[in-house]
Amino acid sequence: MSNAIQTLDLPASAADPLPLKGSPLDRARLLAGSLCNTVRLSNALAGARRHVDLAGLDATVGLLCAKALDLDPAQGRMLLPELSVILDELAMLSGTLAGRGPPIG
């Protein structure tokens, strides 16, 4: 499966990762991309046996779910590829965490 999520480069001064510009679908996709990047980074750290802090991940997933539910059904279906990639990334992270030893860092 290809990684369908595209990330946006935000300026360093962007305090809010979810700007109010764009459609609700665009904002949900932006959040999905951010979440996917977080999970990928966590997986890389876990694979290197580094400490991984997943605090708050559940809140971000919950926010993405709420944003997805707020979309009309047609737009919600358009978000499915991004959600599928996140699910795959989370499965990989789970496997990495299950198969590693204690952190070395």
Short structural summary:
The chain is mostly helical. The chain has helices spanning about 25-45, 55-70, 75-80, 80-100. The radius of gyration is 15 Å and the shape is elongated.
Please describe what this structure looks like.
It is a single chain. This protein has 105 residues and is mostly helical. It has one domain (24-97). 61% of the residues lie in helices and 0% in strands. The protein has four helices and no strands. It has helices at 24-47, 57-70, 73-78, 80-99. Helix 1 (24-47) packs antiparallel against helix 2 and helix 1 packs parallel to helix 4.
Element-by-element helix/strand order: HHHH
The number of helices is 4
Mean pLDDT: 84
Count of extended strands = 0
Rg is: 15 Å
| Sequence stretches where pLDDT stays below 50 over 5 or more residues | 1-16
Query: Can you summarize the main beta sheet?
Result: none
